[in-house]
Write a structure and sequence with these properties.
Layout: E1 6-7, H1 13-30, H2 38-60, H3 65-91, H4 99-106, H5 116-129, H6 161-168, H7 172-189, H8 192-195, H9 200-225, H10 230-256, E2 271-272, H11 276-283, E3 286-287, H12 292-297, H13 304-309, H14 318-331, E4 338-339, H15 342-358
Parallel strand pairs: 1-2, 3-4
Helix pairs in contact: 1-14, 2-3, 3-4, 3-10, 7-9, 9-10, 10-15
């Protein structure tokens, strides 16, 4: 796959022009900012207090190890929430008007075992530009035992993936501790790192420093400050990451690997059939947009259509914008893929896993 994919359809360009005018008018008429507001600040405080408070409880409470397990579970829930609701918006530059605040909050990922630099390339650059395009969007690339794209090679054991995949999903953040180094090497080989005017050796050093510090905090401190055994600390560490990884994996998959979310490919000249904005409608899905808890907790990731069209707008505005986007899409006779509930989206994802586990690779266009 060439990375020089072109989105050019002048007929469809009018859709996004109209939509952008209506969205701009929404903010102007209501005299509100596109960035985060008091709700966003309150959410950040709640999630950080839940994460740091639970960690402090583990370090200081002299109780049975079994009574500490709920705090590890809460840390995992808060970790996923911080990733979806705080870090995600910050790295898109939509958390605050201040670039410094966005940079600071975006670096929260570095203190959760990840790399904000790698995330920016994988998510902001590759995923948002080349959504659901095989060979460019890493979110749908085959994960050894999980086939997420119809254009990928198939193996016989994929037919069982809808059973075992939910055990693998929990490993997401654990694997991130190592896979970030592999991705940095790959992005360096592709020349992406140099295009950002970053020295790869400096980035390797920063990743080692951040990840080493994170592991010291999460494993070293409990060993030094509590009476917990190494195996008890390890179990708590695994609970945190399996909880966060499971939540993050499921939420991400419900946006792009469900029925109705297509996986188009460019022609031999690298041209896509649709304009970029229409491509986002074609490859993305919303789910459970009337669920108040999900709207709060998953950081607008259940409004992926709005997020992909307007990633520079804070997610707290997506619920209201979704009506504008849906109406405009229907006016232009374009798809608006909405799953009414979390359960229906999950069922759709399972059906897609079954199809992808048996379907032969699609023929080149």
């Amino acid at each position: 796959m060439k990375s020089s994919v072109k989105f050019s359809n002048q007929v469809q360009a009018e859709f996004f022009n109209t939509l952008r005018k209506r969205v701009n008018q929404h903010f102007k008429e209501n005299n509100i900012t596109r960035f985060g507001n008091k709700e966003m600040i309150g959410k950040t405080i709640v999630l950080l207090v839940a994460y740091l408070g639970s960690f402090a409880a583990i370090l200081t409470l002299n109780v049975s190890v079994w009574l500490l397990l709920p705090f590890a579970l809460l840390m995992g829930l808060a970790m996923a929430g911080i990733g979806m609701s705080v870090m995600h918006d910050a790295l898109h530059g939509s958390y605050s008007k201040s670039a410094a605040v966005n940079k600071f909050m975006g670096r929260s990922l570095n203190f959760l075992g990840g790399s904000s630099f790698i995330w920016n390339i994988q998510h902001n650059v590759l995923h948002h530009t080349y959504t659901n395009i095989h060979g460019l969007d890493e979110d749908i690339e085959t994960k050894v035992i999980v086939r997420l794209c119809k254009h990928a090679p198939i193996k016989h054991f994929y037919r069982y993936q809808h059973f075992y995949v939910f055990f693998a999903y929990g490993l997401m953040t654990l694997l991130m501790l190592v896979s970030d180094f592999i991705k940095l090497f790959k992005y360096h080989r592709r020349g992406i790192v140099e295009k950002k005017n970053i020295r790869v050796s400096r980035e390797y050093f920063k990743m080692i420093l951040y990840k080493g510090f994170y592991l010291f905090l999460m494993i070293g401190l409990p060993l030094l400050l509590t009476g917990l055994g190494w195996w008890q600390v390890l179990i708590g560490f695994l609970i945190i990451h399996l909880t966060a990884g499971y939540i993050l994996s499921i939420v991400f998959q419900l946006a792009h690997v469900v029925e109705g979310a297509e996986q188009p490919m460019p022609d031999n000249d690298g041209s896509m059939q649709n304009a970029w904005a229409v491509h986002q409608l074609q490859t993305t899905a919303n789910f459970s947009r009337n669920n108040r808890f999900l709207n709060w907790y998953v950081g607008g990731l259940n409004f992926q259509i709005e997020h992909h069209l307007f990633p520079n707008i804070c997610h707290v505005h997506y619920r209201k914008l979704s009506k504008i986007v849906q109406q405009t899409a229907e006016e232009f006779q374009l798809p608006y893929n909405l799953k009414p509930s979390f359960g229906s989206a999950l069922q759709s994802h399972i059906r897609m896993l079954k199809i992808l586990g048996r379907e032969q690779p699609a023929l080149p266009q």
